[in-house]
Amino acid sequence: MTASPGAAEADWEALREAAREAMSHAYAPYSGFPVGAAARVTDGRVVVGCNVENASYGLGLCAECGLIAQLRLTGGGRLTHFTCVDGRGAVLMPCGRCRQLLFEFGGPELLLETASGIRSLAEMLPDAFGPDQLD
Ligand SMILES: O=c1ccn([C@H]2C[C@H](O)[C@@H](CO)O2)c(=O)[nH]1
């Protein structure tokens, strides 16, 4: 995102803060586990999402689903940096299904904030199935 390491950390903190704000809009009455996600896009904008559950439990939407919808609704582009937080604002790993959603719009180079530092999606979803397999 930026050149200097200090500024880069500030950018991740800003992204985490956007995820926390998004998390405050979550609808999670069934799990009691609100989630917020935020990502930076190639053109510099930030897109966010929160989880939205449903009385038919299996239909609940992860925060990443809303984020991807916002990406498309606000101009498209590719995701470059992603973070996700739980109800306490702590960094949360995206579930497997959501890693696949992120792969579609960020590819292997997408950077994720994880419990073990900044890692590429290639590390978190190795040998991923993606659009290239359909060629
Ligand atoms: O990456 C994830 C993992 C979980 N959840 C949501 C789904 C459900 O509403 C709640 C508990 O699993 O957390 C997300 O939004 N994203």
TrEMBL record:
<dbReference type="Pfam" id="PF00383">
    <property type="entry name" value="dCMP_cyt_deam_1"/>
</dbReference>
<dbReference type="GO" id="GO:0004126">
    <property type="term" value="F:cytidine deaminase activity"/>
</dbReference>
<dbReference type="InterPro" id="IPR016192">
    <property type="entry name" value="APOBEC/CMP_deaminase_Zn-bd"/>
</dbReference>
<comment type="similarity">
    <text>Belongs to the cytidine and deoxycytidylate deaminase family.</text>
</comment>
<dbReference type="InterPro" id="IPR002125">
    <property type="entry name" value="CMP_dCMP_dom"/>
</dbReference>
<dbReference type="InterPro" id="IPR050202">
    <property type="entry name" value="Cyt/Deoxycyt_deaminase"/>
</dbReference>
<protein>
    <recommendedName>
        <fullName>Cytidine deaminase</fullName>
        <ecNumber>3.5.4.5</ecNumber>
    </recommendedName>
</protein>
<dbReference type="InterPro" id="IPR016193">
    <property type="entry name" value="Cytidine_deaminase-like"/>
</dbReference>
<keyword id="KW-0862">Zinc</keyword>
<comment type="function">
    <text>This enzyme scavenges exogenous and endogenous cytidine and 2'-deoxycytidine for UMP synthesis.</text>
</comment>
<dbReference type="InterPro" id="IPR006262">
    <property type="entry name" value="Cyt_deam_tetra"/>
</dbReference>
<feature type="domain" description="CMP/dCMP-type deaminase">
    <location>
        <begin position="10"/>
        <end position="132"/>
    </location>
</feature>
<keyword id="KW-0378">Hydrolase</keyword>
<keyword id="KW-0479">Metal-binding</keyword>
